[in-house]
Amino acid sequence: MTVFGVPLPAILGQLMLGLVNGSFYALLSLGLAVIFGLLGIVNFAHGAFYMLGAFAAYIALQFFGVNYWGALILAPLAVGLLGVVIERLFLRRLYRLDPLYGLLLTFGIALIAEGVMRGLFGASGKSYPVPTLLQGGLNLGFMVLPIYRAWVVLASLTVCGMTWLLIERTRLGATLRAATENAQLVQAFGINVPLLVTSTYGAGVALAALAGVLAAPVVQVSPLMGSSLVIVVFAVVVIGGKGSITGAIVSGLVLGLIEGLTKVVYPEASNIVVFVIMAVVLMWRPSGLFGKE
Amino acid sequence: MRAHTVVYVALAILALAAPILGLYPVFLMKVLCFAMFACAFNLLLGFTKMLSFGHAAYFGSSAYVTGWLVAVNGWGTIEGILAGVAVAMLLGLVIGAIAVRRQGIYFAMITLALAQLVFFVCLQAKFTGGENGLQGIPRGSVFGMIDLGRDKTMYYFVLAVFVAVYILISRIVHSPFGQVLKAIRANEPRAVSIGYEIERYKLAAFVLSASFAGLAGSLKALVLGFATLSDVNQGTSGEVILMTLLGGSGTFLGPVVGANIVVTLQEYLSDLVGAWVSVIIGAIFVVCVMIFRRGFVGEIQRMYAARKRP
Question: How confident is the model at residue B310 (pLDDT cuts 50, 70, 90)?
Fold first, then answer.
């Protein structure tokens, strides 16, 4: 069976790949949107934290014998802790200034992180094995579904869903949203806003690191793996709209799928399709698809 | 005012005498090209407070266009440069028209994303030579008689263009148009309420900046004889921000000072420390943002102003 002259299994395969990429976009843009919402900072280091997450998994396996499942917990914790330290030491001092300084600072941090990893491990990619439990594929009749990729989509969607629930449906989330609207007022109610800010940054960073661990077995672990990804994720956040959690998740997934489809129809454009969509969305709705302004 | 004159006269003498003093002309030209690039960038960040995170797109695409026309199609040097600048201008017009609709941080993200689009186009287009880039771009000659093949001749040519651009940018900033830009920087809603169509002014500033960045890129391609993907990637966009910030954004000499420091650092450190150079660049970024936001020239101006006040 063919569609537009392309065999159906090829299309489904690319769609699956697109969905996997979309899950990464969703996880990353979700963390970026949460941080942006509360701290007003565009975290340029998000791609670097994603890379550090993948490297943490790689290092844990190579040097400490910690397997994939351990890394899935430990890597986000370790990298999230690093995020907490960075927030306490640096970002905290910039809140009163123009938000552009936050972007520039995190850009510098990304350069440092990427440079350090390149100095220590070299520029070439490292491969990380697929955990034994998730090896192999499921034969669906019309295509073979690699179990690991299915797991990535499932895990990302679960984490995205839980984060959404946490922010939109719990008391903690309500406090967080209130602090996003008016931090001073929330502080006046006796809530420790600086702590909230620090932990939000840490959590956003941990989400990026989690995406990194999930990605480690399907991409090459390399120091620059996050540097162009972060720009795509920026575009996803711009398309989704300012501070919209739902927008970040939905547009992440959809754009991943569109990218996958583009690979089938016109492969040369697959790298740029997200940016083209961003330009079109901006001309049509300057505040993004889910933006409130 | 007198201090200004002294500084400029000293710099002019230094610039004219530099090759005679034994400084390597190709290095000096590279510094001048990046200084021009940073001055162009500063027109946006320093005087309009628009942070473009994708200025490498104009620098690099102009370098490619000039290089391709001169090396592959046998165009003359001046025509090649003008064509490169025209492409950068056009690109600035298109990207600027999309980006100026949003402010601040969104503006930065949009310029970055669209510059990444330009990067991928350059990566895949046939005429750019993909991963290899364009090599062996000849410098040719200008006005039919001055051969630019000699490094010293080329140096004075680049210096002349640089000085012209520098003066032009300072004329732009001090013109009524520049004053409107400063008004927008100081308070955007107020500028709107006075009756200025600020998007037009911002777009005009953006196109001017992109054109000068393109000119810098074209010259760089001719000076070094190649145009590669690194001219158009996000690292170069970051470097020009660092140069401007380190020297002092919003000052005239700041970007020039910053370009000198960053290019010198890269030139010498890359031999010494290899891959760790990006760690050092990143650390300078962090220091600049945390405790050195005025940059060198900004700090000197502040100290000078503080001393003059009784």
Answer: low
For the entire predicted model, the pTM comes to 0.91
- The reported pLDDT for the residue numbered B23 is 80
Which one-letter amino acid corresponds to residue B168? Answer: L
Contacts of A109 in chain B (CB under 8 A): 282, 286
Closest partner residue to B285 (CB to CB) among A100, A107, A271 is: A107
Domains of chain A in sequence order = 2-122+131-284 (1.10.3470)
pLDDT band at residue B56 under the 50/70/90 scheme: very high
Residues of chain A contacting residue B245, judged by C-beta atoms under 8 Å apart: 104
Size of interface A-B (CB pairs under 8 A): 122
Give A-chain residues touching B238 at CB under 8 angstroms. Answer: 107, 111
How far are the Cα atoms of A20, A205, B3, B293, B303 from residue B46, in angstroms, in the given order?
41, 31, 22, 12, 19
Question: For the segment A226-250, what is each residue's pLDDT rounded down to a tens digit?
Answer: 988 999 998 898 888 876 788 889 9
Number of structural domains chain B divides into = 1
How many angstroms separate the CA of residue A222 from the nearest CA in chain B? 14
d(CA A243, CA A167): 12
Structure-token pair, residue A153: 């989509």
Residue B1's pLDDT is 56
A chain contacts of residue B288, beta-carbon cutoff 8 Å = 104, 108
Q: Do A108 and B104 touch (CB under 8 A)?
A: no
Cβ(B59)–Cβ(B216) under 8 Å? yes
Cα–Cα distances in Å, from A209 out to A47, A89, A272?
Answer: 9, 20, 25
Output the pLDDT for position B48: 87
- Do the Cβ atoms of A272 and B289 come within 8 Å? no
Look at residue A105 and tell me whether its pLDDT is greater than 90: yes
Residue B169, domain extent: 24-230
